[in-house]
Amino acid sequence: MKAVDFYTLPRAIQDRFVGSVMSGFPPAPILASKGGTSTKLRWVGVSAASFVALLVTARIAFGDLESTLSLHSAKVIPLYFVFVFGLGFGLLQAFARVVRERALPYSAGIYLFPACLIDARHDQFKVYETRDLTAVELQGTSIRIAFAGGHSFLFPLSSPSQGPDLVKEVQTARDRAMHANATEDPKELVAVDPLHNPRFASPVGPTEQYELRRPPWKKLGPVIAAGIAIVLGPTIWALRNRGSDNKMYARATQVNDTPTYRLYMLHGSRHQEEVGEILLPRAELVDAKVSGNVDPLLKYKAEHPRSKIANEMNAAIRTAMLAALERAKQPGTLAALEEFNKRYPEHGIEPEYRAAVHAVYARELEAYKKKAPSKDKAAIAFIERLFAWAEKNGPKVEVRFKRKANTSLERADQFILKTPTFMGVVTYPSRFFDDKHSTTREATLGKSLAAQFDAGLAPELFEVTMGSVVTEPELPEPKVPTLFITHSAEWSGHNYTSSRPRGSYVGLNFNMDASFVIPGDAKPYKFKAEIFRHAATHVLHGDGTPYLGPGEAEEKVYETMATEAFDQFGKRLLAGFFTPEGKK
Q1: By CB neighbour count within 10 A (0-12 exposed, 13-18 middle, 19+ buried), where does 564 fall?
Q2: How many C-beta neighbours within 10 Å does residue 304 have?
Q3: What is the CATH number of the domain that holds 488?
Q4: What is the DSSP letter of 213?
Q5: How far apart are CA 562 and CA 41, in angstroms?
Q6: Confidence (pLDDT) at 324
Q7: CA angle, 319 as apex, 318 and 324 as ends, to 5°?
Q8: Of 133, 158, 192, which one is at a domain's C-terminal end?
Q9: What number is the average pLDDT over the span 190-214?
Q10: Would you say 304 and 296 are in contact if contact means Cβ atoms under 8 Å apart?
Q11: Do residues 247 and 62 make contact, with C-beta atoms less than 8 angstroms apart?
Q12: DSSP 8-state code for residue 30
């Protein structure tokens, strides 16, 4: 299929096509199905759908006191604009299609010629060459023409008895066109294809192409429709809101009770002053005083910022707030106090609230100090500052690791290389202390420390989690209290061998430094440990222990050493803050 613009064709070809379909000049169409496209009806449908949508939108929650959509916000104006634009643009486009179709110098339709089928329902032709025909067959009272690519067309028959003859005629004409194309016979090509450009044209005929006829607004249809929508869209929106507001006000004054007036204050607009300052206060003041609770009083104050009884109202609110705070203190939890603060953010009793919060932190700190080991005074002092920071800034605490470069493991690799029991590069010690292995070990220790600090201090007051690995050369300034753990594994100088499985191993010193830092605090808690682990070759022996090959054996040995060292470091670090279970 190829697209052809009728109005860009040479005048000679235009006249040939018009003569063929209008007067039957050769080549006359074998089959024809006259009629334009349904595009104009679609545009009428767009216009009608836009009109219905505009009506439905305007009627949504019209005069409904209980709906937030009773007054459409300015954000809805674009929707009105779209519907008015669709209404106007649809009509303009439909009219433009009618004008354009009626201006065609030929009858719109689909025409089958020996060389091609031309879909001329519009001035933009779709041309299908008959050499691509895949089917010519009778289908009821029509002939179905199908092309490669799945395109097919139906041509109704005035007399069904002509069907077989027409099918044969189409096939014969198709063969003739294919022969003409093969021989490139100029006369034959002109005789089978109305769009073929002949070598010679009449010198006395018109030479100027047919002119495309457009509606008066030419290509400015979208601009005109947009102009109409810009004017009418906001106008219809404003008129709709005005009518809805008046209807809500009439219903509210008819019912004349507190809930109805409140609904109008929530959703109405034009009569807000009268309802808010006169009608609603008359209906609700007594209710607010009788209830004596905080919420009705706060609501009354919010709705009456110029109340004549402001002092009395503030005193009543304070009394109610103090009572509510006492109720929040009864569970003895920070969550209950925070819920009170969240529910009443402008409670006006900040000193009393802060004292209640401090009492929770002080109680939990004293509970910790009673069970904390007394050996490390620096740890207790640090925890006191940690509680103070959390009370002021929040519960978050992080555990982060920093990996220190292993400076001696390459020497250990070279040493292992020269031993008689060396089993290949897969057994180098350095292979088992890379970032991948460190990540797993850090995760195990970090989760353990986070869980034990979280539970050992006060689960409600602290949220201890794992943070990202430190990649900077120096420890960064933390944003929340952070336990930094810097670690490395170094060759101790010891070496070990195993005969079954055969292999060489080294002893390791695990250097681990902990620095517990509070933002803005000049005294971080520090703890340092150097833990020596001999080669754990014992894990390779024993009943039921499978035989491990090179690399697998080293993985198990060094992982056991690292796990034991990390676990031992964690226990030593925690011992400075918490009394072990068996010693309590």
Answers
A1: middle
A2: 19
A3: 3.30.160
A4: P
A5: 79
A6: 87
A7: 95
A8: 192
A9: 77
A10: no
A11: yes
A12: S
Q: Is residue 353 part of a domain?
A: no
Contact status, residue 123 vs residue 104, Cβ threshold 8 Å: yes
Measure Cα distances from 552 to 490, 498, 561 in Å: 21, 14, 14
Among candidate residues 498, 495, 491, the one with its CA nearest the CA of residue 556: 498
What 8-state DSSP symbol labels residue 276? I
Split at pLDDT 50, 70, 90, the class of 470 is: very high
Phi, psi of 108 (to 5 degrees): -60, 140
- Tell me, yes or no, whether 455 lies in a domain: yes
CB 562 within 8 A of CB 441: yes
Query: 4: closest CA among 107, 146, 97, 117?
Result: 117
Count: domains in the chain: 2
What is the amino acid identity at position 430? S
Region for residue 290 given its phi and psi (left: phi exceeds 0; alpha: psi -120 to 50; beta: otherwise): alpha
- The domain of 455 spans 395-583
Interatomic CA distance for residues 76 and 57, integer angstroms: 10
Euclidean distance between CA atoms 78 and 56, whole angstroms: 15
Does residue 279 fall inside a structural domain? no
Query: How far lies 170's CA from each of 44, 57, 111, 132, 419, in Å?
Result: 37, 55, 12, 13, 93
Q: What's the full length of the chain, in residues?
A: 584
Residue 112 lies in a domain: yes
Mean per-residue pLDDT for 53-57? 88
Which H or E run contains 401?
strand 396-403
Last residue within a domain, chosen from 146, 161, 192: 192
69-86 pLDDT tens trace: 888 888 888 888 898 888
The pairing of beta strand 124-129 with beta strand 116-120: antiparallel
CA distance 541 to 359: 57
